Amino acid sequence: MTRNLVRAFAAALAFFFAGDALAQAPASPDAMAQTEARLRDRGLSGSGAYEILESLTTEVGPRPAGSPAIARAKDWALAKLTSLGFSNVHAEPFTIWAWFKGVETAEVTAPFPQPMVITGLGGSVATPPGGIEAEIVLFPTFEALQAAPMGSLTGRIAVLTEHMGSNESATGYGAANKWRRKGASEAARRGAIGFMLRSLATNNVRQPHSGAMNYDEGVAKVPAVALSGPDADQLERMARRGKPIRVKFTLLPTYLPEATTWNVVGEIPGRAAPDEVVLVSGHLDSWGLGTGAIDDGAGDAIAMAAARLAGERKPRRTIRVVLWGAEETDQAGGAYAKAHAADASRIVIAGESDFGAQHVVYFQVPAGSADHPAIRTLAETLKPLGVALNPEPSRYGGDDVGHLVPLGVPQLAMRQEGAHYFDIHHSAEDTLDKVDPAELDKAAAAWAATIYAIAESGIDFRKAMPVK
User: Fold this and answer.
1) Which of 162, 327, 417, 456 is catalytic?
2) Summary mean pLDDT of the chain
């Protein structure tokens, strides 16, 4: 080989390895800022999230975990992720208990006979086929129910009429969720044969809201239902007349001790660090009253659309979308954590979109990373969307990804505006017409820029950085 050929070969090798090194390295801060801004603007001009959501709610509809509908949703998700260009698209089956609605009727039989509107609480036992009928005892607060003497509700139906407040109030969803979860057992412990509670909602329309409940070990299981707000008000007015009130209700849900559901997964491989995973998600299942548009079809659509947009820029790390198959009954995240315990260390960060279809208000990152230059740059990118960086460390990224916390997986929190979220969720009002496409695009735009920033950067969230 001549000297000139040697020099040319050496130059070519140097160029090759330099190019390879550039491909491996994170983009420069300026380049990242420019790409994030483009993703933000691209998302705003049409992220594709609404089209995904329209497809899911129209072609599948409501999707209770363990039902035939969730199997259709799984097939839909596999096809949709594939059509959007994701790779390694697959479904991960797991076994759950399943519950979905059947016959649900209620009426006042005395002293003022009239119908009422109810819906079963997820996981409730059924009534006998002919229903149950008994005198009711009203409780204005959950604490009043807990204070009732043992045996004082024998043969009666307990009715809790306490109002849920705004999510920032003392009686917001966090507190009210306890009433729904524990109310039936508290009533049964005092002898009740049934339990009704004012629907957990921030409005007062005659559409009750479902949601999961639990039975305490060693306590009789009694049927439990949510009562519409106006009907709870009606019972309170009747009670002021001073006459005993009798109520009859029938609840005949389907309960399966063993059923199959699926977490559905799709990935966009990282160009330089494919073993490092940025996990973004929404839950595929829903209650059976509406079509699961805001809870959580919107979250699925945001995760899928944002990940696709961010993935088009070919970031260093792999982006993984997970569509959870049993969030409403709290069985999906645990199944995923158990199946992936051995490789959880590969997950750089995990976040879940599960608070409706409105824009993002603020985001939080793990302890010690809020002052990382990449996060500061991202915060500037998101400001035009009205998104603030909350300096408090993220400790909770969503119900399903929360199961990864014991495995050491850092959490990403993207908090969306939700002033009217609890007017709609878990009810028959949860339908596509409640979604503003522009708001959904704003949420997807924020997620897209965030996913890219984390997937392109070299931030190790497991190593807390000093806060300046």
Assistant:
1) 327
2) 94
Q: What is the phi/psi pair of residue 321, to 5°?
A: -100, 130
Write the CA distances from 225 to 16, 228, 281, 286, 296, integer angstroms: 67, 10, 30, 18, 22
Query: So where are the chain's domains?
Result: 27-97+258-456, 112-244
pLDDT tens per residue, range 85-102 = 999 999 999 999 999 999
The least confident of 40-44, 106-110, 170-174, 226-230 is 170-174
439 is annotated as an active-site residue: no
Check: CATH 3.40.50.1240 for 112-244?
A: no
Residue 344 has pLDDT above 70, yes or no: yes
Q: Is pLDDT above 80 for 438? A: yes
pTM score, whole prediction: 0.93
CA distances, 371 to each of 379, 393, 413, 415 (Å): 10, 11, 16, 19
What distances in angstroms separate CA 366 from CA 164, 234, 461, one per listed residue? 31, 47, 6
pLDDT of 29 reads 86
Q: What is the pLDDT of residue 156?
A: 98
Beta bridge partners of 364: 413
Q: Which amino acid is at 194?
A: G
Give CA separation, 348 vs 29, 89, 343, 412, in Å.
20, 20, 11, 10
At the topology level, CATH places domain 27-97+258-456 in Aminopeptidase (3.40.630)
DSSP-assigned states of every residue in 8-49: HHHHHHHHHHHHHHHHHSPPPHHHHHHHHHHHHHHHHTT-SH
User: Measured between alpha carbons, how far is 368 from 382 in angstroms, rounded to an integer?
Assistant: 20
Q: Give the angle subtended at the CA of 89 by the CAs of 85 and 91, to the nearest 5°.
A: 150
